[in-house]
């Protein structure tokens, strides 16, 4: 036991997140997904500063043009520049995806933590989750879009109203998986010694949850966050594709695809660009989530 | 097992009632007026009568009760009358569509075969493709086949049906001209040529739907096989000299199928929901398209009934999945 005579560690301690990052870098698909996702996000948010054509400006004389230097993606039936529209649409789609994901995450974690932490709330809250899981989500989303569109438009203006509607509709219908995962983890954590220790020195429930429980359930929450972005983007595009999403003069990727379907025979590229953008974003986010799940799982880490 | 099934069936009733109430109250908030299309020259008192004829005059709870009675009591009687020629439902008011002023269930029954044909075929095709892929990728984990399978299923997850559908239309109908882009539901199969035409028009929607289902199922099959391949009983089976085929295809596969079968059962209702988009892309006039049309026409009884049918499917298949789990895996007993 004399080897242990030097009690001072020579290296500074590594934080958990450093290990996670090391593992994450090993996953080639995840790195590629992350790079691609940040490229797409940068392109849709910063791109309009470089390519400053107004996406809603019509120029009838220049309609239905093919790709050229002035319009790399061509123009649509009203002469609007498709590259600018793709960037504007992407900004909307990605914003909707991220905001809806945040909403569903907050709802899901809230319900999950409450259900896992307080035994009295567990039964009712989980029954509620089961009920929501039994609802037919896509039809209900469509119904919600149809019913609340006009009141919200009147209250918040056309674009803001529909944004709030889509984000809250997607958020309200997609929090259940997160809640279930978080509840399971909280149930296991609650029985651990450090929670008992914290409670024995008189930590209040609120502090216990924010200080000890939440940081420990962060990894499943992060994984469902990435997957949540993917589903939110797909759902928003599906709504726009069915003609129940954003109004026509307010481009999103789903709306551009929907508009392009009418000109499928003559200009198939009008469908392919937005479709490709949606698919690539979702694919990159899915790979990102896959890598994150592996990196955050301590059983896999270090292999 | 039987008591568990009965208990779950009994529990399903309040769940379904609650869901129908949620849908009903949601629709109750609808700003749309079914009288909006009626000309302005019609005097208000006539409009009021038409409103009452649609059953809109009464308070909410009475209308909800009436809908429940119509859906759960009168519609089954209609079904019995239809099969046995009895006259239970004669003179009773059924759920009437505002669009066509004909019973909602009649229209639904007309539309269901189209959906079932396309969605059902897609599901069967997907299962047939997904299971071998899942089995082989698990057996040769990290081989090029497995990597390819992972990539293809990632793509299947990520490409939404409204893009993959449109993409195959661009390639196979517009560019190559092999398949028709619109699904013709009036087509009657009565000869070899018409059968070939039916096959041709079914290929694209079926493949688009099957891609998505295959992606999920093959991942599930792979994960489940991997869980079982490292178990002790597999080593025992190999040690006693069983052939590799018997070890994998009999011992491991049968155990791995337990979760997969339940996933297959759970996926069936979501396929009906997901098929709404595919039906829209290929213009299949199934129940998904019926729902979209009813939504746009503000036909609330139709929307209410269709959404509720989707909910019934979800609850029913959840129940089936739970029961299947118990039947297939003797270690799981609920009582």
From TrEMBL, chain A:
Keywords: Cell membrane, Membrane, Transmembrane, Transmembrane helix, Transport. It comes from the Bacteria. The chain crosses the membrane at residues 30-51, 96-118, 130-149, 161-182, 217-246, 271-289. It is a multi-pass membrane protein. It is found in: Cell membrane. Residues 90-289 form the ABC transmembrane type-1 domain. The keyword Ion transport does not apply. Belongs to the binding-protein-dependent transport system permease family. This is ABC transporter permease. It comes from Ruegeria aquimaris. The lineage of its organism: Bacteria, Pseudomonadati, Pseudomonadota, Alphaproteobacteria, Rhodobacterales.
Automatic annotation (TrEMBL), chain B:
Keywords: Cell membrane, Membrane, Transmembrane, Transmembrane helix, Transport. PROSITE patterns: ABC_TM1. It comes from Ruegeria aquimaris. Residues 112-321 form the ABC transmembrane type-1 domain. Its main location: membrane. Pfam families: BPD_transp_1, BPD_transp_1_N. The keyword Secreted does not apply. This is ABC transporter permease. It is a multi-pass membrane protein. Belongs to the binding-protein-dependent transport system permease family. The chain crosses the membrane at residues 115-139, 151-175, 195-215, 257-277, 308-328. It is found in: Cell membrane.
